[in-house]
Amino acid sequence: MGEFKVHRVRFFDYVPSGVRCMAYAEETSKLALARNDGSVEVLNFSSFYYQEKVIPGDESRSIESICWAAGNRLFTAGLNGEITEYDLEKLCVKYTLDAYGGPIWNIAANACNTHLAVSCEDGSVKLFIITSDHIRFEKNLDRQKGRLLCLAWHPLGTHIVTGSVNKIQVFNASSGHLQHVLKLDSRPLAGRKRECVVWSVAVLSSGHVISVDSSGKLLLWDLEKGTLIHTHSVANCDILSLAVSKAEDSLVVGTAEGVVFQFEHISLKTGESERQWVRTKPFRFHTHDVRAVAHSSTAIISGGVDGHLVIRPLMEKIEVKSYEAALRKITFPHHHLVSCAQKSGRLLFQFPEHLELWQLGKTDISGRDGDVLPVKKKQELLLKLKRKGTESIRCSCVSHCGSWISYTTSSQLYLHQLHCEKDNLSLRRVPRLPQLPSAPLKLLFSPDSKRLYVGSEGGCVHVLELSDGACKLGPTLQPPSETANRSLSSVHLMAVSINGTYLAVATPSSQIDIYNTHIMKHECSVPRYSCPPSALSIHPTTENLVIAYADQQLMEFNINQRQYTEWGRRVLKNGLHRDWLERDTPILGIRFNPSRPEDILMHDNYMFCVLDKSLPLPDDKTPLFNQITLKHLSERAQKSQAHAFKITKKFQPLMFMDLLSDGDLVLVERPISDIVANLPPPMKQKKFGT
Amino acid sequence: MSRAIPTRGAFLSGQQGSLFATPLPRSAHANDVSDKMAALREHFTLCGLLTAAEHRTTEILGVEAAGEPDRVLVTDSVQAVTLYKVSDQKPLGSWAVKQGQSITCPAVWNYQCGEFVVVHDDKVLRIWREDDVNLDTAFKATLSADVCRIHTLPGADPLVLFRGGAVHSIDSLLAAPQQEIESVLPVGERIVWSEIFADEGQPLVVYITEQLSDYFVYIHQFSPVCVCKYLLKPNTEGSTILDCSGSMKSKIFTLLTLYSCGQVCQAPFPVSSINQESERVVSASPLLQLSGPIEGGALKFLDESHVAVLVPSAAKQKDCLSVWNTTFQTLAAVSEFSQKTSAQPIVFQLWCCGSRLYVPHGKALLAVPYSCEVSCLASVLGKSRNLQPSVLEKIPLVNWDTLVGKDPEAKQPRKQSKERKTNGNAGNSTECTVYPLDVQNIPQSQTEALVQRLLLGKGDTDFQVTVGKITQSLVRRCMADPKFYPQSSLVQLVQTNTLSYSLCPELLPLCLGKRDVRLLQLCLHSFPDVPEAILCSCLKAFLSVSEQWMNAAQIDSHSAAAYIDVGDQTKEPKRTEQPEGPRVVQNGFSPNAQQQEESSDELIEESLPQTGQRATCPMSIRRAVLVNSVLMSPYSESFLLPHLKDLSGEQVMFLLRYLQYLHLKCIGNVTGNLPGKHVPTVSQVVDWMSLLLDAHFATVVMLSDAKALLNKIQKIVKSQLKFYSELNKIEGCLAELKEPKCPSVSPPGRYSIEVLQLY
């Protein structure tokens, strides 16, 4: 039945970059996070934590702090001394502005979104007015000695509090004068001079300042009087991050040991009106420094050097115990970093700074389920291509035949042709690429390798006609004008039918357009769904478009009839299995098996699934994961027990899946242990018995 | 070390008194009127003491009860006799002797006819009634001998104690005042203290005499008249008795003495109506250790577990009246008086009448009301501090007195056991508390019966305590009297398995002294906590005791018979011909073994399993059984090692040979252990061998006859090492087998092509 030779690839050395800072916008329920490599991601919590936008990093830009301002505007500031605003439509930097204060340690916007404040290395706090499309420098606050590592606005915007080494400063925001200096306990301990670095501060509307520092203490200060109210010794290591919930009834701190502590503002006795900050829950989801924490109304969000983003829902804040209530650990990107040349059996791996092209191995022996076949020809690294410039690679693609490689950075598209003469491999960059009207975001070669589709902003796709050694800009495919949500209209998924007739283009706004590439015309649009699509593919023979959405919903759309297929309607009507809907990662890839047209091959990070449309859909009473049971049943019993979803969790975490032309399955795994091995050693902790 | 014995703290209180009593803080203050188990209330002045012409304060001769609870009769040296109503602090009557006469004995109240009796000028007896105004006109009788004291008790005739030690009832004296009074005491003995007690309605006069620095206790009984004399051995040499007090209960008189070393000691005396011809020695055991040596002091027995002590406190410049709980060694109450300033020699006096203590202090006689309640552990620990007495009564607390056997009220369980005992042994009504004393006195032939009687009450809660007590007193008596050694009784006691070394630490040294190997063996078997030093002494004794002696002892040897050929013993008798001592060891030296040692090395290596047949036991089976009991005892290496060094070279060799023989027998057996029960395990044997070699390596290496043995041992070790290293080598191969050869389990590499089938 469904038998595959699986190329189990574990040589993709992907290591997620550590999370440096985060900002959560309660109104839009979007989380912006910046990583150590300078990349910025936006996750939409209302669409099942889908990673909507990824803005690749730049070597020249290191981000220290990120903030949302004025609704949907995203600012970062970093050690290059510049404030950067991002264009979230085009997924690129909108502009940068030098603050002239040396490296910037923190950036924060006030609650009414009129001003941005940055704290600088030179001890200055600079205020910027947020204008409709830019920011303008307004003034400096009283300059201090030494770097100001963190900054916080009073919720009413009256004060700005900064933290530096051994001190916390309170400024009057309107006058710009220093009001208090709160000194930390810096007495030498055990004969050693102690420096207490205030890593983060927060101001509550009650007029309390909360600070966390390198001595592992959380201090509570009175803003008006400038006095210390309470000291909580939290950890024996640095507390690196702090976030307070909007309601100011809970806060969360992240430590260098990888532990996250929640504090709650609660009355010690029931019925008592007086409340205190009490440490309530420790969470240990990280192995390394927790550099960033955020607090949504229902969850604690933490990220750190180990690259994981952890969303821990607070059970008491969630009314319906459902999908939302599950702990999320997001380690891998929600898009493919791998592309496959099906005909030649080559894999292109995308790293921020380079590409690797690998030739898969071969075997000529077949075996039974579970057998590891002897590899006749080993895998081979064909080439390593370094990116040009300082910008990280945004997207890359290899053609079906394996002779074209294209990649794009934030601003530039690159196209390379690969010549294979016997054992000699030569790579030639296609010169003088035509100037694209808008920045390239997504790349896809047509199956015949004669075209390169370049997805761009606004849902449009530029078509590049390829001929041997040259490239010509063709027409631009544009969606019909009624596309509403401009901010989510950058192309993030593309699929082409095997005969090259149809091209499906999807944006995170769930707009899916289908073009006829023969006549370069918009064919039709798939009805809009509430969730962003996470994967799509066109069936090679029936030309049905299969779409997976971030909420795990599956759709089958008949392009010719411009409607959902019969099976797709059945799926919609019956609903999918509960276990299927509760998986934590979205479907990342969909492929079809030409030899079995009824099958849809899908994968997410933790499973590989063959959906056999000819079999009945499972209801909630039958187990979804039934492969092990089926394996031990007789063939007849198997038939009666089988259902449409054939799932294996043998291969995980999965980053990519494709089917080669010869029917072999390629699965790219990235074991967590391999990632951990590449991380810096965690802070040494004394454990009992060691 | 020892098993947890719940009552041990109280049981051993006598020995541990010094540990507990001194550091205790004042737990109660004099004016602290509370519901504590013992308390001293606010004191008041009963009467002032007149100062005589020579600037000497009046000396109080005595404070005696005067018939009614609230009345006391105070006799002083100036005003003579005054009758007080205590609660009113008011004299009811006063009688004085004529100028030139002096009162020599405190006045007492004759309960029988409601008269006062006083003695002046040593011999003149005066008897008067309360309404008599003048003492001169009162009834007068002149006796023929000097009177020491008159003692009265309710319901009995007053008894007159003469200086010579004779005791006569006042009636018999009045009938013939001039009758001849014989002198009981030898010349030089003088009465220092006397008191009257009632035992089951029978009066009993106890007095203590002093001769040089020896103290003698006389117990004078009536009906039938019988005087017992005991030599009281003080606990600390050289300290003098400052004051005494006593109590009488269940035919045991307990004497409490306050010594000048600051100790309160207690000594029990059996009150038997058997006239003893010879004096017996009773040693006082310490009960309380007060602060250091004192020059004066007074003591009063209050009840079963309380004693009042009046001593000067040098540090505080004050006199302290304190009430101690003797059961728990705790200070129950303290009252302090500023020290006397007068230059007169300090005389500490303390009387107890009704529920008040009387203390002459400064220029007044103070009355200190006190109260004592039955003590329980909770109250001692202060748990009941905040409880109202009524609440306290309701709480079922463990009464420790019941367990210790002191509380007269709590006889319930004992009565049951008594009934049980009477079933088996008619006519026996002895109580547990009497055993130790009985043991002190009864002849050896009767101890066995006594112990057997005791063993009948195995189910009793205090069985273990009783066994411990009996053993202790038996051992103590054995030590005091070398002729006394009730071996069978001791064996029976040890076989109850309730004893431990710490419960009767003198038993094992005693056995060692008596060379009682059988009892030693039994003790080693049943004691879980034999110290290493004793263990080593036992081992030494076992190794050196003569064969004849061993044969005489009834040693059960069949536990060793399984691995020691009885035929071997034919070699042993040689040993018996020689006196015990180090020479003995040479006999363990069997020529057979020597031959073997001389035989070629490879023979040993090859014939390891067979050597068992060839080897002969260097010890006789009885000795082996004894030594085994040592080998099987628990020990701690670091403590044992220094004591092992005391063994002589010959003893070491002898033991080593035996151990090696055992080892051969062990490894010759399939299970690696010796056959039979109560045999040392192979690891015990090897551990002892290593220990012995560790302790005596330097000696053993120098001994010429040890060389062969060492060689042999080393060869065994070598061959075993080789064997184990070979096993280690195989281990790797075996581990390989364990790992499943299934390829799917092996971790996949960076790249693999696998087959996946989905159903």
UniProtKB/TrEMBL annotation, chain A:
Example of a GO cellular component annotation carried by this entry: t-UTP complex
GO biological process: maturation of SSU-rRNA from tricistronic rRNA transcript (SSU-rRNA, 5.8S rRNA, LSU-rRNA)
Keyword Repeat: yes
UniProt keyword terms in alphabetical order: Repeat
Cross-referenced InterPro entries: UTP4, WD40/YVTN_repeat-like_dom_sf, WD40_repeat_dom_sf, WD40_rpt
PANTHER family: U3 SMALL NUCLEOLAR RNA-ASSOCIATED PROTEIN 4 HOMOLOG
Protein name (record): Cirrhosis, autosomal recessive 1A (Cirhin)
Protein source organism: Xenopus tropicalis
Phylogenetic lineage: Eukaryota, Metazoa, Chordata, Craniata, Vertebrata
TrEMBL record, chain B:
Domain Nucleolar protein 11 N-terminal: 37-370
Domain of life: Eukaryota
An individual GO BP term: maturation of SSU-rRNA
Cited InterPro entries: NOL11 (IPR042859), Nol11_C (IPR048897), NOL11_N (IPR012584)
Domain Nucleolar protein 11 C-terminal: from-to ranges: 463-759
Subcellular location: Nucleus, Nucleolus
Record bears the keyword Calcium: no
Positions of region (Disordered): 406-429, 570-609
Record's compositionally biased regions (Basic and acidic residues): 570-580
One Pfam family per UniProt: NOL11_N
Entry keyword set: Activator, Nucleus, rRNA processing, Transcription, Transcription regulation
Gene Ontology cellular component list: nucleolus
Protein name from the UniProt record: Nucleolar protein 11 isoform X1
Organism in which the protein naturally occurs: Xenopus tropicalis (Western clawed frog)
Gene designation per UniProt: nol11
